[in-house]
Specification:
The protein is an alpha/beta fold. It contains 11 helices and 8 strands. The structure holds 6-chloroguanine (6GU). The site of 6-chloroguanine has 13 residues, from strand 5.
Length: 246
């Protein structure tokens, strides 16, 4: 997969791409990333990329010309995604959808906003990573790159780990433990030490159900709706959880 990122602050996005799994994916050629400084395409003396809003008001607006010029200088194909708090809310399912693309183009918005014509005439999609306001789209772009890249075949060592984890099946993940079996007097659930794989799988499923139900009731309701009728085992596990609530 190739991802082009357009930003006024290239240094803000470089570091995280040079570390850990994204670094390895790039070294393996599974992921290539172009970081493009929007300011570099400006031809005026002061490399201006923002201007005052028509109609007045506080703050500055990102100008059309440099953003269109930067994107058009390298664009080949694929969705052009504007990172903005007004976009559709990013999710595992959007990450999965985007991971099927060979090419992604990400534009990091900045200032009070971008000229509306960047949204309407250049971007094909708009994404927000949550209901809070960031100083710009750079950190959001990195979140999208990270969540999408790990779904590209070969990027994770273990293909099953992308399936097993929190959210992929619509449930939160079960608790994990590793050595030592006792740390400062705090133990590990007996079942996990038992070596009984069927019992362990059942325990994990039950804890996934418990966590999702207790921490993310709206996610749990959605999962129930999508997965009904439930398997005999899930019905049994939920009955056990309800009984232990009393
Ligand atoms: Cl994509 N941009 C900004 N500036 N703030 C955000 C965001 C994006 N997503 C959540 N908050």
């Amino acid at each position: 997969m190739h991802i082009d990122i357009f930003t006024l602050f290239p240094a803000m996005v470089r570091g995280p791409l040079d570390e850990s799994i994204l670094r390895r994916a790039r070294d393996a050629g599974l992921l290539t990333v172009g970081i493009h400084d929007i300011r570099a395409v400006t031809t005026d003396r002061h490399h201006v990329c923002d201007d005052a809003p028509y109609g007045g008001g506080a703050g500055m607006v990102m100008k059309c010309e440099p953003v269109f010029a930067a994107v058009e200088s390298v664009y080949l194909e694929g969705p052009i995604i504007l990172l903005t708090p007004q976009g559709r809310l990013f999710s595992q399912s959007i990450a999965s959808e985007l991971s099927g693309q060979a090419h992604l183009t990400l534009i990091c918005g900045h200032y009070e906003g971008v000229d509306e014509r960047i949204r309407t005439q250049l971007a094909t999609d708009e994404i927000s990573i949550g209901d809070y306001v960031l100083t710009g789209g750079e950190l959001a772009a990195l979140v999208v790159v990270d969540a999408v890249a790990r779904l590209v075949p070969g990027v994770l060592h273990d293909a099953t780990s992308a399936l097993d984890e929190s959210h992929a099946g619509g449930l939160l993940e079960y608790p994990h433990y590793t050595r030592p079996p006792e740390f400062r007097g705090w133990g590990v659930p007996e079942t996990l030490l038992s070596g009984d794989h069927a019992k362990i799988a059942r325990w994990r499923r039950k804890e996934s159900l418990r966590r999702t139900r207790d921490r993310r009731p709206e996610l749990f309701a959605h999962w129930l709706a999508i997965n009904s009728p439930l398997s005999k085992q899930d019905q049994q596990l939920l009955r056990e959880l309800e009984r232990s609530d009393e």
